[in-house]
Design a protein that fits this description.
Helices cover 34% and strands 20% of the residues. The protein is built from nine helices and eleven strands.
């Protein structure tokens, strides 16, 4: 406990010094307070008080955009939100955000947190912050030296995630959509669009073989990497049904119809990029 309070005090001092340095040099020191806190108290993330509700965001691409979307939505609806908006998403960055969320005496100041978490750092973070919700963008091929392949990252996240965390998952990603099958979950997706194709034209496709029977998967439509709608003709393995499904998008009016459990709703498209529209659908589902 002494080490925790020493880490808290030191982290607060470094945060103050960083804020002054930012004004002088116009540079961000987004995870330095957390680095110091973790040096003094390695289990600082476990000990520090967390908001009652924690929303974690992870995945290969889109984490920072989606974190900011969700934090903005909650703030606009009157919530006082703690967030690591600048994308400092490894354990020291999460520690810095949590450090900012408590007083000098360790009392939490925010009822809700939206935390971007690097997918590789999941095992250093998730067991200690116990997310109420986890929103996953996708699991795609990334730097092989760092992330090896999506199934490796899948195992890291799955092994670190508590059994009672509610998952918000991309139904069009046949890898991340299968995370923690016994956890409560909500799926989002984007229905068939005119620009889709039925064959996978990307050299990077990590879902060509069925994970159940090892037969060849057939795509109803494909977008990029392994993102799309697919099934296995041999055993019936298929992409899950989306609870929140975007319909045919109107790129002239930038309007997007979305089928929800409550009926159809219409949203303004935040972008004409399919990558960002997936981020928008994740925020809508959340």
């Amino acid at each position: 406990m002494i080490r925790y309070y020493a880490a808290l005090f030191a982290g607060k001092c470094v945060r103050l010094a960083s804020a002054m340095l930012k004004k002088l040099l116009k540079k961000e020191g987004t995870n330095l307070p957390g680095q110091i806190a973790l040096k003094i108290c390695p289990d600082f993330i476990n000990r520090v008080k967390k908001p009652e509700t924690v929303i974690a965001v992870t995945g290969t691409n889109g984490k920072t955009t989606l974190t900011n979307l969700i934090a903005d939505l909650l703030t606009k609806n009157g919530y006082n939100v703690l967030s690591n908006r600048l994308g400092s998403n490894i354990n020291s960055g999460v520690a810095t955000a949590l450090l900012n969320g408590v007083s000098l005496f360790g009392k939490e100041k925010y009822p809700i947190a939206v935390l971007e978490v690097d997918e590789r750092s999941a095992f250093r973070v998730f067991p200690y912050i116990h997310p109420t919700y986890l929103v996953v963008t996708n699991l795609l091929r990334d730097s092989q030296r760092r992330n090896a392949h999506p199934h490796y990252i899948f195992d890291i996240i799955s092994g670190a995630m508590p059994d009672d965390t509610t998952l918000i998952l991309n139904a069009d990603d046949l890898i991340s959509s299968n995370l923690k099958p016994d956890n409560p979950r909500v799926y989002y997706g984007i229905g068939h669009q005119p620009f889709d194709h039925t064959d996978c034209r990307n050299l990077l496709n990590d879902m060509q073989i069925c994970p159940k029977c090892h037969g060849l998967i057939e795509y109803e439509y494909s977008r990029y990497n392994h993102i799309g709608r697919a099934k296995c003709p041999s055993c019936g393995f298929t992409a899950p049904k989306a609870d929140y499904l975007a319909g045919l998008m109107d790129y002239q009016t930038m309007k997007m119809p979305v089928e929800t459990p409550q009926g159809e709703e219409t949203y303004r498209m935040i972008s004409d990029s399919i990558f960002n529209l997936y981020n928008e659908m994740a925020a809508i589902a959340f």
